[in-house]
Every structure is written in structure tokens, then in C-alpha cells.
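User: Modeling request: complex.
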Amino acid sequence: MTDDVTDSRRTEPTDAQLLAAHVAGDTDAFGRLFARHRDRLWAVALRTMGNPHDAADGLQDGLVAAYRRAETFRGDAAVTTWLHRVVVNACLDRLRAAKVRRAEPLPDDDAEQRDRGSTHTAAADDPEAAAIRGDRRRALLAALATLPAEQRAALVLVDMEGHSVAEVAQMLDCAEGTVKSRCARGRERLATLLRDRLADPPDTGGDLAHGEPDRPDTRPIAVSPDPRPAGEGGAP
Amino acid sequence: MNDRPDPTSADDESPEITEVRRLLADARHTEPMPDDVASRMDDVLGRLGGEIPSVRPEPSAGDVIPISAHRRRRAAQLLVAAAAIVVGGVVVTQAFSPSSDSGTSAGSQVQADDASGGRSAPSTLQREQPQPNHSANEDSPGPNPEEPRLRNGRVVVRSQHFTDDALQGRALLERSDSAAKAGQQSLLQACPVREAAGAKVLAADYRNAPAALVFRHPEGGTQVVDLVVCGSLSPIRTTTLPAP
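Assistant: Request completed. Predicted assembly structure:
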């Protein structure tokens, strides 16, 4: 313990040390821990919930739950995995409670990026390609919002955030095969919903016959109920 | 994280699936948390920082309960139960004593309640009726025992008097005017709770943490009341009152 204290003076405390300090009564420790991971937790909440308002609510639920349940952390996973688990579960709880599956496009990203001067703004790119890319991003997010919440969460964590299947299985408290199954079903569903757009070459400006090159494609995404049950099985 | 091995086998993926995965990766949100959300989270952390560490929602299935906390809680329950038995015995003795009249037994009831912190053995009827309480600590009500104690416009809910405080809160809610209701709305804006149809919500304070009393629509002569700590979806306390 003495060594830990000495080390912590020289270097930043680890996540596990901060969480332990919080449990021991350090009033600043949890805030420091959350500050380290809040941007990724926000991204996961945003993509899982589909809009900033609900994402903030879900993240707040997760924050409160993590703060109060810190004692339940058993150390058999990384602290960041546990934090993701708490936040994602809070988001899923909200989605289940609302039982509302949003299918509308999600304009938050573009608006936020314009406001903040994102490094990926169209100014640095070919405007036509940027318009196409923005259109595809909106279409993808709109299609993603139509998936069952568990499939969406799995895709957000695996394909967007780049976590391993094993980590996501811990976050979602399910078997790795279930994560793979959810991802596979979700991807297939997205491929179906985005089939028309996927036919366009990705980086050449696409098939401009669909509309003006500098105007995002406003074609609606054909959303129909998934004919397959949302059940889970092993790996596809 | 993106340099990790591909989590699923991509060998047999169709080009469409590969393209979907590429689109998903491109749609990764890379912007920092917005300032307004960050401020909100900081506020929540600030409120949590003033919370008594032992105040946590009732554990749900699957939560790990530290054995020390379990023992402390059990010891407290045993102490309360023992006190209730003693007080109940005194009350019964006084009530059936040949020398006592109704006035003295009522006085004894008050004294007994004082001795037990305002709560004797909780029969169903007693549990549903507000009990007078004259202790001068945090658990004491306002100057008028029938009036709920308020803190920053919120009804103070005492852990040992949840049912009583819920009753008083309901009475307050029923007689509040439009201005008071507007004040409640503003207090509850930062405290979203899951409301059932026909439910009424009252801003509350539970162990210095903002909370809400959710009075569900009365059914069959009873009304269920949930206590929800702000920021949590699940109620940490629930009681049943007689319908208003």
C-alpha cells in the first residue's frame, strides 16, 4: 500500500486506484475517473440512444449508478469496461422503459461538428465527397436507430468503438457468441436498409444521378419490421 | 482500440457487410462531450459528493452486497425490532391498566413514540397514519407535526418515516396552489422520473439528495408511492397508502 501511495505521487493513479479511493471516501476520485473516460462514454451513450438529449439522460443514470455501486466492482474486468457496462445498461434500461424505437434521422452530429469546427469538415475535402459522406453517415445512423437496442449497443461497442467481442460480452453481461450474433444480425439488417446506398462507390462522390452533388440525399430509408425474431443464439 | 484484431471473422463476409462495418467505423463519434452535458454531469457529481456514502438505492438482483453492510443493516433491524417490542409492551400495559384512562394512555403513546424515535410496532393501520414526533434531530418534522418539513422547496423524506412523510407530502400536493405547482415543476425538471399514467410527482429530499415522490394513480382503495432518487430510474422505497 505504501508503494502504491508513493507511486501515485510520482504518476497519475490508475483507474482502479481512483475507484478504490472513491470507495474509501475520497470525494474527488470519482470525478477524476469519470473525466478520463467521459468522452468515450458520451460517444457510446450518444450512439446507443440516438440523440443528445436521451444520451445525456442515459449517461447521467449511468454516472449515478457507477458512483453508488462502486463497491460492487470486483476487479475482474478493467474499470473502463465496468464503466461502459454501467452506462450502456443505463441506456438500455431507458430504451426499454421508453419502448420507443426512433427511426428519424439524427441531425445532431452534423450540427455539432459545424458548431465545433470539426477537423473532418467539408472545408478540407472535396465538397461533393463530403456531402456524400455526410449523407451516408446520416443514413447509417437513421438505420442504426431502427435496430433493437441490444443489437445497436453491440454494434456501437464492437464496430464503432472497436472493443473486442470479449470486452463487449463483459459490458453487456452476455456470452461472446451472443455478441457475435447480435453484431451479425445488426449488420445484415443495416446492409438491407442501406442497400441502395451501399451500391454507390464510397469515395468517388457516388452516383450523382440521385441528386445534386452538393445536396444531401434525402431519400427515405425503407424501414420495415425485422422479419426475424430478435432472439439470440450462438455465433452466426 | 481500432488496432485490435478484427473481433469477428471477416473472411467470409460479403462486400456489403464489409462496407457496413466500414460505415459504422466511420460513424464513430469523435467529438468531445458537449459543454452543456459536461456541466450537467459535473452538477450531478457535485450533488452526489454531498451524499452520505451509505445512501444507495436498494440493491437489485445481481448486485453484490458487502457482508459488512449486510451485518450492519441486520443489526439495525434487530435493534429497531427489539425497541418496537418493548414499546409495544409498554403501550399494551398502559392501555389495559385499570388505573389508566384514555387521556393517560394517549399520553403514554406519545411518550412511547418518543422513546422509539416516533415509530412503535408498525401495524398496518399505524404504518398508514402519520405519527407525532418530537425528537429534535434530522428526523424531526417541521414546527407543526402535520406539516411536512421542507428543504429548498422539497419535502424532506425521513428514512424511518417514509410512509408518514409520503402522507404529508400527498396532503401538501393536494392543497398546493398553481404557484406552488409551478415551483414543483421547476424543481422536477432536473429530475426526470418514470411516471405511470395518472401519477403525481412531488419534489423531495432524501438524506440530502434530491429525489421525487411518485404518487401512482389510486387503485382499489390504495395508492402506491415510490421514492426515486434523482438520476436513478428505479425507486429505492415504495409504500402503500390508503387512497385519498
